[in-house]
Amino acid sequence: MKTISLSVSENDYEAFRAESARTGKSIASLIREAMVRYRDERIGSVRRLDRVTPFPGVRPRGGG
Amino acid sequence: MKVAVDSGVLVSAYAGHGPSQDACIRAIETVLGDGVMVLTATVLTDFVDTVTDPRRFENAPTLDEAVALCNSFAASSNVEIAEIDADDFVAAFALIRDHGLDRDQITDALQAARLRRLGISKLLTDNVAAFEQFGFIDAVDPADPTYPAVT
């Protein structure tokens, strides 16, 4: 595990503090969960676009 | 290398027909293979608005299908979505004033202003004249028979 420190807005801190109280999880645990979700959804999903795949069946009216 | 693509070329590639569609597909795939395709927010907006118009296309894709494609652009490492900010509007209206443009050229000026601020000069477009007038955009039409390979 790496240890990091970060500055956050008071609103974000309060939201995580309240969620921590509600769930019984530590704020650090919630932040780790958020990082994993971000990694999976945003970083892990990044792919190269190699091919142009036209919309199937679409055709310009007037043959243009 | 980063190359910007205009909405007309994007529309032709994804919803066009015939040799011009083939040329636009080849040009975009060349850009994707060699570097990064840059799409401004205005281009994406125009693209979605155009391809989903049933007056212009038979079997036009749904809005959801067009948005899904745009989301795949945003999720691709070799596609860059360039947002438009307030400074771009200021720069665009300066271009409009300096070049005596009409109201229907506002989005072209916005795109040009954004690309200049990003340091991107190469643009694939079906409207070369509209961008070459600015003097800082190297505009090429991939559907033009004289179109050179993108370098």
In short:
Chain A has helices spanning 10-23, 27-43, and one strand at 59-60. By secondary structure, chain A is mostly helical. The longest helix of chain A has 17 residues, at 27-43.
Structure description:
- The complex is a heterodimer of chains A (64) and B (151).
- Chain A is mostly helical and 64 residues long.
- Helix content of chain A is 48%, strand content 3%.
- Chain A has helices at residues 10-23, 27-43, and one strand spanning 59-60.
- Chain A is elongated, with a radius of gyration of 22 Å.
- The model of chain A has no long low-confidence stretch (mean pLDDT 87).
- Chain B is of the alpha/beta class and 151 residues long.
- Helix content of chain B is 54%, strand content 14%.
- Chain B contains seven helices and six strands, in the order βααβαβαβααβαβ.
- Chain B has helices spanning 7-15, 18-34, 41-51, 63-74, 86-99, 106-118, 128-132, and strands at 2-5, 36-40, 57-58, 79-82, 122-124, 138-140.
- In chain B, strands 4-2-1-5-6 form a five-stranded parallel sheet.
- In chain B, α3 runs antiparallel to α4 (63-74) and α5 packs across α6.
- The longest helix of chain B is centred in the N-terminal third of the chain and has 17 residues, at 18-34.
- The radius of gyration of chain B is 15 Å and the shape is globular.
- Chain B starts with a strand and ends in an 11-residue tail after the last strand.
- The model of chain B has no long low-confidence stretch (mean pLDDT 92).
- The A-B interface holds A 45-61, 63-64 and B 13-17, 21, 24-25, 28-29, 32-33, 37, 51, 55-61, 65, 69, 72-73, 75-79.
- β1 (59-60) of chain A pairs antiparallel with β3 (57-58) of chain B.
